[in-house]
Predict the structure.
Amino acid sequence: MKNIITQIARILVGVLFIISGLIKLNDPMGFSFKLEEYFNANVLNVEFLIPAALLIACLVVIFEVVLGVMLLIGFKTKFTVWSLLAMIVFFTFLTFYSAYFNKVTDCGCFGDALKLTPWESFTKDIILLGLILILFFNQKYILPLFNKTAVNLVVFATYTLCFFMAYYVLQHLPFIDFRAYKVGTNIKEGMAIPEGAPKSEYQMVFIYKVNGVDTEISYDDVMAGNVPENAEFVDRKDKLIKEGYVPPIHDFSIEKDGNNYIEEVLNEPKVMLLISYDLNKSKDKGMKLLEEFHQKAAEKDYLVIGMTASDQETIAVFKKNFGLTFDYYFCDATTLKTIERANPSIVVLEKGTIVQKVHFNDIEKVNLK
């Protein structure tokens, strides 16, 4: 009976680690953005790790896939099980911390393919922890499926393929786009809220400083006079009680000089968006290609605009350094990182519908009609 339970746990854990790892390996840049959220001062306060987020993301997801394979084929059982246990203990702490303190709203466990709330992520990790503990206490039942040479070759091949996949998607784009801005998406339709969709519910609360501490007091208590005598009013805010329908595309804007040109741009028949969420983090190799490409697209009657979250001073510096003659419009950095993974990158629109997305390394593949 113990052997059967162990083999079931072995298959479940191995397959889940492989699937989770491959989904993130398809988009390591996206996972690195999630790690940056965790490294932030408001969460784990290890900001010195942010510059290495992409490297860490690649190593973690490759190791995750390889561990799943190692478990299934029975490679170095003791090392594999201990590694699985260490990893799940760390991620269980991370998801609990995130859920309890409401720090990160999506753990990124399955990338953009499957969104889990912090508490759902924590529950998933608790179940995995239980399964891995079964493996930990029953290691003697985890035997190799093949001879030593074959097992070693499988692990080596897995490492090699994973490294190749990570390199390829970073130099181009993810094989599969799970995001709201995938090719074929109409942005205006993605922003629409269906009729009758549930609306968010808010509660008005007042913040008073009570004995030196900011304290929330409900509207009803304030109206009833249930406010401590020594309390000092600080602020009033609307607290989210129940979140309503949130459209797949939100926080998307095309702003310039205080105006939002989203309607005008999305109604254009041919638009080329040159996206750099942060110009200071853009690749020089890609930036050097943009002006020549801009001129070619303009000849084909495309409206060509840049999109960034950088300030006007930075925009001016980059336009001068790279001889850029197109205008940059503002959009939230998180939104731009969601749209594309390369910096810079190219997105082609036809009346608001995304028809092509290209990494700057593949700029010659853009279909200029």
Summary: The chain has a mean pLDDT of 91. The chain is about 45% helix and 15% strand. Residues 250-365 form a domain with the Glutaredoxin fold (CATH 3.40.30.10). The first strand starts at residue 201 and ends at 210.
